[in-house]
Every structure is written in C-alpha cells, then in structure tokens.
Amino acid sequence: MSGLSFQGWGMHSMPGGSFPGCGIHSVPGVSLTPRPAGRDASRAFASGDFTPAGLVDDVSGLSPPELLSIHSWLSFYRDNYEPVGKLVGRFYDENGAPTEALREAEAAIEGALKFQAEDEQKKQQFPPCNSEWSSAKGTRFWCSRQSGGVHRDWAGVPRQLFSPGVRGSRCVCVRSSGPPWGQPHSFPHSDTGDLQHPHLRQFEGCPPLAEQCVLLTG
C-alpha cells in the first residue's frame, strides 16, 4: 500500500479475467492506468465488486483475508510496474504526504499478516484431519503424516479443537508424545505431546490414542 500510480499501458486483463471499466486499475492508493490520472478502487480488489458502487478507496472494516488480497495485488504491482506518481485523496494529501487513513490501512494489513503467520503456526501445531463421509458409515476422521497438507514426522490422533470466540469445533491431528509444542527442551514433561492443551476435546466413543475415529450417523 503505497499511494503510488503505476503506468501500465495495455494492461486491461489480470489473473482471473478482465476487469469491467478496464481503463482504471488500482489498489490502496495505487492506480494502474494508461492515462496520467488514476482512480483509487482499493476495495474492489478485496470484494471483487467492480461495479461503480464497488470502485471505492475505503478499505475500513475488511476482514484479514480481504486485506491480504489487497496486499497481494499491491505486491504484484510493485514487482511488475513502474510507479509514476501519487494519488491525491484518501491515502495522500495534495503535498504527497501520507494521511492518517493510509497509516490505519497499513496497520490493518500488518495485523492481517501477523494473523496469517499465527494461523500458519497453529496449522503446523494442529494440522487438519483427513475426513470422509458416507450415509452408511457416517464420518471418519483420521491422521497421517501428510494430513491437512502439513508434512511432518508424526501422524497424531484426532481431537476436536475449540477456538475462543468461534462457534463449533474442527478436527485436528495432535501429537501424542514428546514435550508440548514450542517447548522442545522442557523437562520433566508428561510425554503426551499437546494432548493436554485446554482447547482440545476427545471425540466421544473414540479410543484416546487411535489414529482414526468414526462417528456413526444417528
């Protein structure tokens, strides 16, 4: 998010298809246009709404994934196009100085990047289970050394993970031996991995150390 205008002659199509109103392409404070003047349509790069109502520069209230989408587009522009100026408006004033709105948006994206990093770390600790469902057999959850797309040297056992502030649970694979996550040198420890994590719950009717669990259809 730089508030720069990028020159992009003939650039009227981006990954995923062409943009309506293709004379103007912009992300927060960034315009890609074959004309000297640009228009900031930051929000559209997160919402996908390229109608006149969606081509606005207000990025307040966007979710972390939406902010990361804008960040990704901005990185693309910076890597592939030459900046030719700044857009006066929400993110830069007439002197080219950053506004409070720009600082707030940058802080929001930094928060989204931090959230992404924490989410990836949590995925490494608690990889998603494999699962399958059939009307005859119900739902089967199981763990392997590649489940959830996380390659590791342990399979783990299925558990329900409850996240604070989130309704419901999801199935994750949990290390059942060794020290707790992030404490490789702790001693003494119970040699139960992360099974004692307070946000975990065992599936009812499943053996505590089984690598698969079947929930029968009621």
UniProtKB/TrEMBL annotation:
This is Cytochrome b5 domain containing 2.
